Amino acid sequence: MSRPGPRNALTDVAGVLVGHHHELDSAATLGAGRATGCTVVLAPAGATAAVDVRGGGPGTRETDLLDPSHSVQHADAVLLTGGSAYGLAAADGVMRWLEEHGRGIPMDSAGHVVPIVPGAVIFDLPVGDWSVRPTADHGFLAAAAARADVRRGSVGAGVGARAGVLKGGIGTASTVLDSGPAAGVTVAALVVANPVGSVFDPATGLPWGLGGVDVGGYGLRVPDAAELAAANALGSKGTVLNTTIGVVATDAPLSKAACRRVAVAGHDGLARAIRPVHSPLDGDTLFALSTGTREVPPPSTPVPAAFPADLPVLAAVCEVAADVVSRAVVDAVLTATTVAGIPTYRDLFPSAFDV
Hints:
The protein is of the alpha+beta class. It has six helices and 15 strands.
């Protein structure tokens, strides 16, 4: 059994904060104006980190460092950004903010540190002016804006995001486990939804990620047939350059290798909410963070010596990781607002909200 956390957001994992910074002109169009941004997930000190990259065309930073066989175990922040590969420059600003606050790997007695900031990008360059993309200053301001109250929709890295024919954006969701080996553990996700694939069922008009259950509390109903026909007639996004990126976090105490399995499981949530996903030119990337702040009781049944001691907890976390990622995609789509003339889900399916 499980339930959404108090915010139904990534920050329900205690100590995790989210900040956005973006540039957006009200008159932005495809190819003109300013419409891009970045989002920073600040991790508490000592958070274990890992990553799983499934897209064939990723734009990433410091992902090799997160391999379980490599030495560094922790990350100080994760950057999710627009601007394609250009947007990785925003990580410099995140590092600057962290350094100013003494966050990072201690290097000497003088207090010098090296912050660890892995990151990933979405391709949003055609939305707004191609030459406008996140800079180091954007990253610094996003880190400085990090807080527990998470803004959703067309903000931060989600400003220029598109979800198939719809406006994409930032979405988030959380689950608190009520029973089992991980009772009391929180698992949450934040996603930047920018897929070329469809996020709604062409037969019903409902988001794929709902799975037939309105867990997000949106109260949707099957939209009118005329709206569905019009939406299906829009065709495809028109570009194969896309990407959905995000972070799955938990307060369960997990090793770096276990975090990797959580990131792997999170991709199942993308597959539930987006069709198709993980294409050859996608950059689909999910990071996983474990704060380790939730104590869990020893397993009621001893774990065989051949398996990791945290296996029962890991299995429980992985089981819901896909669910929160799927719900976060739905949240991104349903909270997005129109940018550059890209229609939102509510624009195309207003009757779905007539309940």
